[in-house]
Design a protein that fits this description.
alpha/beta; OB fold (Dihydrolipoamide Acetyltransferase, E2P); Rossmann fold; 5 domains; five-stranded mixed β-sheet; five-stranded mixed β-barrel; 13 helices
Length: 538
Amino acid sequence: MHARRVRSPENPLPPLTFMLHFQLSHKNEFKSLQRRIGLQHRNVSLDSRVPSCRGVRRGERLPSYPICVVGAIERRRHIYRSPLVQPRRPQSKINSALSVLSVVKFVTRMQLTADFFQQAAKVLTVSELTRSIRGTLETKFAAVWVQGEMSNYKLHPSGHQYFTLKDQRAQISCVIWRDTMQPPRQPLADGAQVQIYGTVTVFEAQGKYQLRVEILQPRGVGLLQAKFEALKRKLEAEGLFAPERKRPLPKFPRRIGIVTSPSGAAVRDILNVLRRRAPWLQILINPVRVQGTGAAQEIAVAIREFATPNEAFHPVDLIVVTRGGGSIEDLWEFNEEIVARAIFHSAVPIVSAVGHEIDFTICDFVADLRAPTPSAAAELIVPDVIDLQRQIDRCARTLGRQLLNRVRDAQQRLDHTRDTLQRCLAHKIESYKRGLLHITAALQPRKLSGELMMRRNHFADLHRRLIACPGRLIENARHRFGSIEGILRVLGPDATLRRGYSITMNDRGQIIRTTAVVRPKMKIRTRVTDGEFGSEIL
């Protein structure tokens, strides 16, 4: 027996697997061999699908049966072909197979084991393998955009939607959960060309991968969206979207102009709301096409007609540009540059009410006010007559209460002022009465004898006080003088001189207190206790 190495990249096998190919003539022999081998070698699998060996003579080489050995090292995958030699003594086919197995065991004990084999990997369950594949896919493909044709669309009673996205060469299953996105404007159907955005995942119950859809749009929407963004950036750079150029809307417009299709639902919604909220309002409708070739030019011309004064109708206070909802293709006429510039150059404030709340157009960004829906635009541009009536009634009641409170406050202040004036007048009158009585009493003739007696008594009192006053004054003065004299004897200069001190003065009688004023040949006088004497400084 000998072995030769043959590379076989076109038919790789899983790692750590042996495979023996031989011919058995009976099914029971195959089962017996499988049982005997499986008890000792769990990594050995049997396959009887090999060409027949009948007609081979004894001693001749049998056809080469592959003994496949694939190691755990991925960079070295080889297939060994081992020609089996027909033994001279007849043996059973099972013994022959076991001899082949012994050859495999012998090979595995050789040094080749260190190069090609490692410990057997863990045997995975189907759930574990599928879960591992799912994790790999969801990690590798986080979120992708895919485009193709829809087929096999099905709306489940639970609300989930299932379909297949395909092209000419492949297909993939897709699912839209009922709470993932809002229902599309146009119903989904087989054959539709769409673009979807979603994540790759695996449906483990069936073992197949699928796309979990989060965004779905028609296939041409991508080009229109790119065109929309480009025009938006251009107009924004030119200042058409600047907030400072937005004009306030009139609070009580008397006449408005509506640019829309006369047969659409949007104009009916606006008229119903305006008729209910503002019956006094005058409404002018300039009919245009809102979809199709040339519709953008008609919309721009209608806006300029309302914004330019003319003799056909009185000027309007406000312009409303509106239409109902639809796809981006349906609303594209309101994304044209000619419409945006007509709104920008309009001298009359413009309200844009195009599509539904989730729809945005270039017209919305240029207009002075963007309304989410046509009905909302009607509610925004005019006040409700019922609300106005309620507000007027509320103001009337408030004004009546304020006037009543003011009248009552004025009455109360008037009463208080009247009481205060009465008290002041009474007090003044009483004062005048007392003054008048005093003057009257003073003007009456007096009795001279009484006056004379009163004056005599007053003089007598003054004389008595004058006689008694000098003696006390002299005694008090003498007492104070004695006190001052005692203080002077203690603190006076003579007392200081008696203690041995002297006082030095210059010839002008000024006391010399420091040596800085003393000069040579200066005459000085010194006073001591019993006199003074003169001297001269050398």
